[in-house]
Amino acid sequence: MIDKKQVTQKLWLRSLIADVLIAYLRFCYATTKWQVEGDTEIKQVWASKQPVVLMFWHERLHLGHASWPTVDAQPVAVLSSQSKFGDVIAKVNTAFGRHSIRGSKAKKSDPSKNKGGAQAFRDLLRWLKSGNCAATTPDGPRGPRRVMTEGSLKMSQVTGAVMVCLGQSTRNQIRLDTWDRMRIPLPFSRGAMVWKVLPAIPADIDADAFERLRLDIESELSAVTDRADSLVGASA
To answer: What are 92-107's pLDDT values in tens digits?
Structure first.
């Protein structure tokens, strides 16, 4: 079995992995015929230049770069870890015109280890307050699958950023046996993007109201994801 930690120790190999990912994803995106729902709403958001928290489930991570334009829309920042494999993700982000903010949440097994998560969250807040977009996978990086954590909602609440749920799917795909059931797109496929724009989380709500919103938005994100699957004939 290949040890990911050993593989990513070598700088040249990390760079090669990133280059292969970039080339493969560009090929998949270019050869996919996309169907879009909710594009009127999202185009209004792009034109508004207001801050945006973009959300999609971790399982659709490899489709995210196909969705948000690099011109005539808010610049996008993506969170990537400070690990050596995070270098790969950061290079991929840059290739698709995204800004990387490095840091991740500490593991429950070793909460004392500083992984830069708190600073990264502050950096994302500053990024949003400047009128930009933060792309998030609210069940990542370790799950549980399709269970929304509070981070994305807190960013919206603090900055007044609108929330955008994005569901994406492709007809042709590979499903990995991972906690999130990660999907890898295949080229020459049918694809779907389903957008749902939601208002910012109010600044003055109590904990119970916040939890109700969290559950509602979790359901909305799963609904647009399942809708994308149905449009291309892929199972959930």
So the answer is: 999 999 999 987 665 5
Identity of residue 51: P
pTM of the model: 0.90
Give the relative orientation of helices 11-30 and 84-95 as an angle to the nearest 10 degrees: 40
- Residue 84: pLDDT band (50, 70, 90) is confident
pLDDT of res. 173:
97
Q: What is the pLDDT of residues 46-76, one digit of tens each?
A: 999 999 999 999 999 999 999 999 999 999 9
Q: What's the Cα-to-Cα distance from 231 to each of 35, 91, 165, 225, 227, rounded to whole Å? A: 8, 32, 17, 10, 6
User: How far, in Å, CA of 162 to CA of 134, rounded?
Assistant: 11
Distance CA 180, CA 142 (A): 8
Strand pairing class (99-102; 52-55):
unpaired
**Alpha-carbon gap, residue 54 to 47, rounded angstroms:** 15
Q: Using 50, 70 and 90 to split pLDDT, how confident is the model at 236?
A: confident
Alpha carbon distances (Å) from 28 to 24, 59, 68, 197: 6, 17, 16, 26
Length of the chain measured in residues: 236
The residues near 14 (Cβ < 8 Å, ≥ 6 apart) are 8, 84, 85, 87, 88, 91
C-alpha of 118 from chain center? 19
Give the other-Cβ count within 10 Å of 215's Cβ.
11
Q: Count, in order, helices (H) and strands (E) of the chain.
A: 7, 9
